[in-house]
User: Fold these one by one.
Assistant:
Number 1:
Amino acid sequence: MFVISNGTLTKYYSNTVRDGHLAEQRGKRSRQRNSNSFAFTSWWADAKNQPITDLVGFTKTFFAKHTLLNILTRYCVFDVDRKLLVMRPYQIVAAEGILLRIGTAPNHRQLGTLAAGGYVWHTTGSGKTLTSFKAAQLARALPAIDKVLFVVDRKDLDYQTMREYERFEKGAANSNTSTAVLQRQLEDPNARIIITTIQKLSRFVARNKKHPVYDAHVVVIFDECHRSQFGDMHTEITRSFKRYHLFGFTGTPIFAENSGTGGNPRLRTTQQAFGDKLHTYTIVDAINDRNVLPFRIDYINTIKTAPNVRDKQVSAIDTERALLAPERITQVTNYIREHFDQKTKRSASYRHGGKRLSGFNSIFATASIDAAKRYYTEFSNQQKEMPLAQRLKIGLIYSFAANEDEADGLLSEEEFETEGLDQGSRDFLDAAIRDYNAQFGTSYDTSADNFQNYYKDLSQRLKNRELDLVIVVNMFLTGFDATTLNTLWVDKNLRAHGLIQAYSRTNRILNSVKTYGNIVSFRDMEQATNDALALFGNKDAKGIVLLKPYADYYAEYEKKIAELVRLFPLGAPIVGETAQKSFIKLFGSILRLKNILTAFDDFAGNEILSERDFQDYQSLYLNLHAQFRSVSDAEKETINDDVVFEIELIKQVEINVDYILMLVERYIGAKGTGEDKQIRATIERAINSSPSLRNKRDLIEQFVDSVSAKAKVDAQWQAFMAAKKVEELDRIIADENLNAEATRSFIDKAFRDGSVPTTGTTITKILPPVSRFSKSNGHATKKQTVLDKLAAFFERYFGLT
């Protein structure tokens, strides 16, 4: 295990993670840049997921003897492929929380109650299987524990989880193909970890009203505990077992806001079914830590609902009919075909699983079996005349339980029953499976066992990127992980946990080519998406995070603006540190309010302060920011402790170069009219109110003075800045006696990569030669001086051309 740090930022990683990455890189073309090992590392963090990045803080916590020994002896997994997996801090905290409950519950006489267990909210894609495995493995080792049951709620997950557990430790767990096998395992004292489905466990309980295992001390871990555990099966199991700890893992808990209305009202939320929340790691945490990818969402409008329709029920029926209209099916299919290469990055190649692959693959989620059949037929028709090599390889799967959308947009249970399908739908699925068989040399159909095997084969080919697109209704939208999958095409209504689960099929990290999960929605789900992200991004979620009414925010904004104008009128100096701090605090709160208000249509035209006055206040705010940043470290402690600058909020509405050039064009056209002075003042005000343009003020002013009406402003700007860049860089080279060619190459790479490299040997190549026998620290001082000058030069010109 290695730790990497530059003093300010510190991370850790295992040697096999780095070795595996380098082995993959060796298969790439030599002209491609090697990825930085830093991208394959983990932050250390506290129990609330706050990264401990500073080397001093990291050392005090990570290298504390008990912590380091626990990581090395308890929270590393050396898997069967001889890869060392070092658990991430949130995984460790969750496992510790489970072990703590197991240890304390008997002393408090809580066995067999909710208080003996709890649930772990770790977002989809954050490694819940490894966390649950390690918790199960450590629980198995406790002398008091007789059995650890890992319960899944779908047949395919039984198979998937077994393979995952087998990867972590050969023979660690026992899976079962039937209730009879489960019974033998429950009666076998050597079968310590058992993987089973909730259906098999429920059948065992129903057939065995009395059994010795009910009195055993057992740990029951439910995977994906947001699903069917809230029904009668959950009640039967908890009623039969007497001395149990019940733990649930979920990426999308059920709160009051996203619970259903059916079933037992006392088992509708995750907390009701499993007890306390033991740890939280939200989708926001995972994206910030780069453990999963962010989403990129496109909304493609394919139908417009007529306004002022009185009968909403008739309107809904008409809309659904329109959504299945042949013209729209053709349009959507054509859109997917035309944009498939672009969305799945078909032009990019990479190595995965020992193979060279081109681009990624995708899932197409449809609203019903009828819709899935129509789309499959349309893809077949549109690709009929195409050369075989150019056709998309398409699969189709659905089952009886996935017959229609849930009324509220949540995903229904995924089952493997084809018996309940109407004859037409079953015949169609059989025909699609025959197409699949012809493509891959297999022999599946819709009979019970064959259909399950078809599911498994389809699943594996999707993971290996042998398929381009699979059309589904509900299958594969929850609990399915494929790192090669990067796009979800959506033509169905989704919301809450169903939406997050479906979207999260696309955001597993694979390599540097895959930078985000693509969602292409053919329905208006923007509000549903915003609501779901608000709910599952809020780690303290008791419900959905709703904005207050516009009037509430605006009343507060009015009050703050009135206070600002009264206490700090424009033109009057702000004297003294206390007054400056008051201004910073007040204007920061105004910036935060304005950031919220701009989301409301009503705010446009009701900003109270004119654009000019707001820019002047913003300039004053930035002046104080620059002033406080320039004070000595000793003074900073006394000034900056209670000063928070909202610079990021200013950057959200940043003045850019295009805006300045537009003003310059107006300035040229207005010369000699008297209006030019006002425009010049507007340019200066815009520069002063911009965090990124303030240090370029002299350059912009020189350009404005030199600009001519005889040529295009943009062309003059490019030429002026190019000349100034050369002039200033040549001056730095001359002043510091640098290697001219190496310096220019160094700066060109910095502009290409977006930053000035401060480490490595590149910087030494541009410095003048220094005697290696010099006892002074002159070389280090010179290096720092040159780096500071080049960094300032980079900041001055980056983004200007």
Number 2:
Amino acid sequence: MTKKPESTESLNPGHDYPDLEVSPPEDWAVGLPAIYHSMEPAIVQLGLTRTAKLMTSMNQKDGFDCMSCAWPDPDKRKTLEFCENGARAVTWEATPVTVPTSFWAENSVSDLLTKSEYWLGMQGRLTEPVYKPAGADHYEPISWEKAFSLLGERLRALDSPDKAVFYTSGRTANETAFVYQLFARAYGTNNLPDCSNMCHESTSLALGEVIGVGKSTIAYDDFERADLIIILGQNPGTNHPRMLTALEDAKKNGAKIVAVNPLPEAGLMRYKNPQKVRGIVGRGTTLADQFLQIRSGGDMALLQALSKRVLDAEAAKPGTVLDHDFLEKHSSGLAEFTAHLADLDEAEVLAATGLDAAEIDELADRYLSSDRVIISWAMGLTQHRNSVATLKEIINLLLLRGNIGKPGAGASPIRGHSNVQGDRTMGIWEQMKPPFLDAIEAEFGFSPPRPHGMDALKSIAAMQKGEVSVFFALGGNFVAALSDTEATEAAMRGCDLTVQVSTKLNRSHAVIGSEALILPTLGRTEFDLQKSGPQFLSVEDTVCAVHATHGSVPPVAPGLLSEVSIVTRLATAVLGDSGPIDWNGLEADYDRIREHISRVVPGFEDFNEKVRRSSGFILPNGPRDTRSFDTETGKAMITVNELEPLERPEGRLILQTLRSHDQFNTTIYSLNDRYRGIKNGRDVVFVNPEDLTELGLEDGQRVDIASEWPGEPDRYLRNYRVVSYPTAKGCAAAYFPEANVLVPLASAAIGSNTPVSKAVIVRLEPVASASTR
């Protein structure tokens, strides 16, 4: 039996949550509660049979890849190879609850604007194309034929292809991403922003420059071979819980684990593995041997301090600390780096990090006593002004002792969305390099545009100037995911036409151009049947492993098109069917797409054969495989980066945005954040108790959060409940995407242009009619 979720009419944007409850945070993660909180919603909403089919297919070699994160799969799979949030993601997508045709007449666009992300998503799956004409306030059902005809007319009418922007979400599979970028370039533009622009763009740029590959340099098995794993700016217990099992295995093999984060996260404190007896009835496994509660923005200072301690140890005992053979053969820049760090100011480091010297010494000793070290990070490091330089400092530290290109060691960025890395490999980037474009030209017989296109922030800037007429989104929730919500929404409304390819409703369906289309699509869990028969897709995980993903259940409704079908039919509507690309053939048989990929994308030779192997295949990776580095110097580059500590004015706090536990990107599964002690609400700001005393505030008090940016009016998040919480002193936190309103568009990382969502200077203003709860 299935059940439609209860109405949540009161949960409107900007409103508080009357049933909000706050309790102390947890000091451990997963265990029996995770089983209950994942399976109870699935069985209620999907029914027992559908639940069993989906959960036993998820992340299996002949099943579908979970869409909730890019964590790699072990070669030996368990029967239930998923986590709590993976189960929630599947429940969310595979729900049999659908949006009825009557919904569109009953709910205007103006009405949808008043609804929360949670309410919108809970309405069920989208099953029919709908169109909002210019001047109207309602979507209305439209046939697929009319939808594509309208798209073709609007795109062909533009006086320049660069007046269109084609955005991509990281859930898009390799084959879809390839045909999508192929269409955009055949149409004539490189305007291909994607969700990487908001998350790991800093990683791609930094690693690409200094080691020649903007990806992880480790394999899945390296975790259990490591002596030391340093986890920076990352919350695995919520964002990729299956990583906890890999960390537990590493601990079993003797590894030490160090967590570096402004907030203590339950998953890194103690883990109760629900597939083991000790995880059900015992205490579980303590994961972090050391926790450094760093001040937000202090990671670069910490990394430089660690490298200086390594260099000082080498100076004290020459020839015994650094990996001189590796450095001489495979790196450049050591002398300049050594000279630069000789002047590092220890007092400045301690002020920037908020740590004691003894804490840094302890971590340095751990690093020096370990032969194999992995450093892992996520968006806690990538969304700062100096993120690119900070990530280069990670590579500096690893290179000093040869911790790249050997088992159990390397750089480990952990991607969020399941195929965001694969999308970039397939060409979803506004700055693809000439060899890729040359290969496209050789394969398809047309000359793709060469000038760089626009990323996410540049797209918004162009909309503000009236330079973008059409915005097309292949998945995602662009409006909610991007920074400076008010400015972003105003820019989007300036478009002539906005198009969303989606499985469920979100905020981006309500913040639209003069005309708007919603095109419903198959979910990853569903069968994809084309003219040549059943189809499968492929994805690339965070350690460069590529494998197939097969839908496991029938579509939730007839008439849904796959993303590949939508893109290829769009291409035919815009470009016609007489050009050099057989779009109809690509839709009919995805093997044809993979044949093209095999001749265009390095590492995908014999793609159709390799992807059919039970475990897929691993892409080549020079730093990992052969200690070869495709950089300007032909070696791994040790770089000099100037330390610029983040200043916190008196009476202000450094705020970061973060996800709740029951959340995936902008998708809100429930109003609870179990591990942080939040229930039935999201209008909270977490603040250190010492800061509350200094600011004259109290736990439970209501405040307005004001962000400050030079030369611009303050931005506000109104009427938030203060939660006394063990954050790093001087730091605060609030939930994404609501707190995006506080992040200025102009606040972006140097080089990568990623929104600076982890270092927002704010002040807390008591609400006049403050109340406690």
